[in-house]
Amino acid sequence: MQAYIDSATEQFRALLTEQIARQERIAAGSKAKDFTAMEKIVIGVCGGDGIGPIITREGERVLRYLLKDEIEAGKIEIRTIEGLTLEKREEVGKAIPEDTLAALKECDVILKGPTTTPHGGNLESANVAMRRELDLYANVRPVCVPEEHIDWIFYRENSEGEYVLGSRGVEIPEKLAMDFKVTTDAGTRRIARAAFEYAKNNGKTNVAIVTKANIMKKTDGNFSKICHEVAADYPEITAEDWYIDIMTANLVNPAIRSKFQVFVLPNLYGDIITDEAAQIQGGVGTAGSANVGDTYAMFEAVHGSAPRLIEQGLGEYANPSSIFKAAAMLLRHIARADAAEKLEKALIICTETEKKVIATGEAENAKCAEFADYVMSTIKTL
Ligand code: IPM
Ligand code: MG
Q1: Number of domain units in the chain
Q2: CB distance 130 to ligand 1 below 6 Å
């Protein structure tokens, strides 16, 4: 037993040293890209697994349609990034193969299909690895249900919390297991800043800080404290503390849910509650997700790779709405607001008001490509 304790203590020392160095790197800061001043923007597209290549293929088609002139003028390049598949990742034993990572780092923004993470084993999630390698610290997930007056945006911390050491806990066989949750001051400050800046720039008056600080006193306690320190720079915005358990209840309480606007929260709570929120909007297939850092940003569907659809031969019938929403967020991020607005408007018509063509993953409904054609022909009418 003493040997286990000694080795775990050593491991803990190494983790602490490493995490302090990470905090120092974040604290040193970096400058966000100004897309309005760039001569050329490279958009990388990686398909991922399962239905990923199918829905991203259609996402790319819509992007090419909307950005046609700028692509022809050489101002925007859309580049296919190979190798982010489960087969390749298992073959090289890496969450992201090295050449794929190098190719991703040559892009400014990325549209990514879902990737499969095997249960157990040692292969880390490609998603988590990409967020870490490209320092995509803000996971931004909007959820809107106009008829219910719901207009939410979640700022989920995306680089630390329960995720950063999730594969590196301690286990003493048949006795205990321990994982670590890490909240750094600089890491919290930057996600809080992102949430309050969004609120300020979009006329929002309320930010909910969602934690379980009554129990996780160090990590969540600091998260809440630092969010309030940042909030002090935004006197026109109300910052309210909520616990994650009651907030999950609030989201299904029609009497109060529409009063919430912006949420800022640690990684795992953000993961869980954004699936709940997406379900309220109509399902995880309807939500887009932005993973934003200062140098890179990656846009993806909230849902997974749907291996069941592929097994049943129904992959071509996958619903691409979620990746289309992600594509609209990508356009907005690279300061192409007109193109983003067209896509958003077309999506509202195609998925809510008109619904002439629907893709549901079932063979009696439209194919993914047919739905994409419908979206593009709707854009033409705008
Ligand atoms: C998400 C997903 C990921 C996460 C998985 C695929 C690692 O659930 O983007 O919400 O847990 O963050
Ligand atoms: Mg999730």
Answers
A1: 2
A2: no
Find the DSSP H helices in the chain: 2-28, 52-66, 68-72, 86-92, 98-105, 126-133, 185-201, 219-231, 244-250, 267-281, 307-311, 321-333, 337-348, 368-381
Per-residue pLDDT at 117? 86
CATH of the domain at 44: 3.40.718.10
Q: Is 0.90 surpassed by the pTM of this model?
A: yes
Q: Same domain, yes or no, for 119 and 191?
A: no
The alpha carbon of residue 24 and the mean position of all alpha carbons in its chain are separated, in whole angstroms, by 24
Residue to mutate, 89, 112, 117, 125, ligand 1, most ligand atoms under 8 Å from C-beta = 125
Domain of residue 113: give its range: 33-136+293-382
Q: Which ligand is nearest to the CA of 117?
A: 1
- Residues 208-228: pLDDT tens digits? 999 999 999 999 999 999 999
Q: How far is the CA of 71 from the centre of ligand 2 (A)?
A: 33
Closest ligand relative to 127 C-alpha: 1
Residue nearest to atom 8 of ligand 1 (CA): 271
Residue 229 to residues 14, 190, 238, 265, Cα–Cα distance (Å): 30, 12, 12, 15
- What pLDDT digit, counting tens, does each position of 117-152 carry? 888 777 888 998 999 999 999 999 999 998 999 999
Are 321 and 363 in the same domain? yes
